[in-house]
Amino acid sequence: MENSTEQLSPASPPTERQQGAVSSAVLGDMGPVEPAASVTNPFGLALLTGLLVLLWRWGGVNAVLFVFGLVVMIFLHELGHFITARKTGMKATRFFVGMGPTIISRTWGETEYGLKAIPAGAFVAISGMHNLDPVSPEDEPRAYKNASYPRRMLVITAGSMMHFMQAILIFVFMFSVIGAEDFDGAWTIRELSTLDDGSDAPALVAGLELGDRIVSIDGEQTLAFEDLRSYVQPRPGAEVALGIERDGELFEAATTLASVPHEQGADTGFLGVGAKYERVQMSPTVGARAFKEVFTGSFAMMGRIFSPSGFQNLGSLMFQGSEDVSLSSDEAAERPVSLVGIVRIAGDDQFDWFGRLFFLGSINIFVGIFNLMPVLPLDGGHAAIATYERIRSRKGRAHHVDFAKLLPITYGVVGLLGFLFISTLWLDILRPIG
After folding, report:
1. Contact present, 213 and 278 (Cβ < 8 Å)
2. Of 72, 119, 205, 379, which residue is the least packed, with the fewest Cβ within 10 Å?
């Protein structure tokens, strides 16, 4: 990680925001403003524009908006590093979002801010991250490596803490403002299906419409959608009487349930309706519990991904070829996805914005934990080194690790992350989940 706290993630695009908006009001006194030094790169701007157009053509508006959410996520990660570095007296020389060619950069005070063309990362450069990062004598007191242990830990973990804060806010907003669907309560018809041969399903034959409520079937109340499902599935081919509520009026309709194959072998009854549930605002504690559950589950997921069997599974999937267009559900559960896969899943029209926000919150938690793994070049590697140096320091003499000795391990980690990036991207293009 040379002289920057850099966001590294298998699927994490950076952000686009005019940096002047986060000047003295957020960061405090930044010193005198230097003459603006801007660089405009037409090629970089064209590249970024082209990528956005391709994203819109491929995934539509939903994909673009979700990527923007990921962009904001990474921006806030780096902002956490930047703010804590400045507040603890360290010198932050650069704050860039994006990778590749620089589109524009501008200097305020001692920091250069910029936007790069490829939304695939972001970084904050802090002086003196380690002994391989040269620092001028006048900046030695403000170098990261010379700061106290609590200040170094605050700065290096601030990115992941921002992810966790985002996740909590997202989950609380979802459950307390948007509201969660009440699967045990009243529901209406959201979709009407056709059969595999293209003919109308029984619900369409009966004249049902979107927005109708099925309040009973053969006299049995169907307050919850599960009540309807449990009655219909064991009765393939049966004639049923439906009690329908439409625009406040009740009437009955008769139809014959279809018989469709079940994955366990026996045919099952089929009416052909999808449910739309009422949303109910819940206590913020529900969002907090959701955070806790996803946080715990993320550790198990990371254990599967970064285990020897996890990497072996990815390798075997890559060399199975692309004849089978999609992965099975078992294969999908055992492998991570790239940014391409994440955007494809989030852009699916079957995903509503409650689901997309839950997905975004879950990604925040996973990336936050991922960046705390105690290996370089991740933030957790720097935190582990700071802790080791604190333990080894004695009687006012600070102990500093020689980063040159850690480079082989760092290159090995980068190699594994590179394999993870390439393999998931390959699979998401040739054998997507779905």
Report:
1. no
2. 205
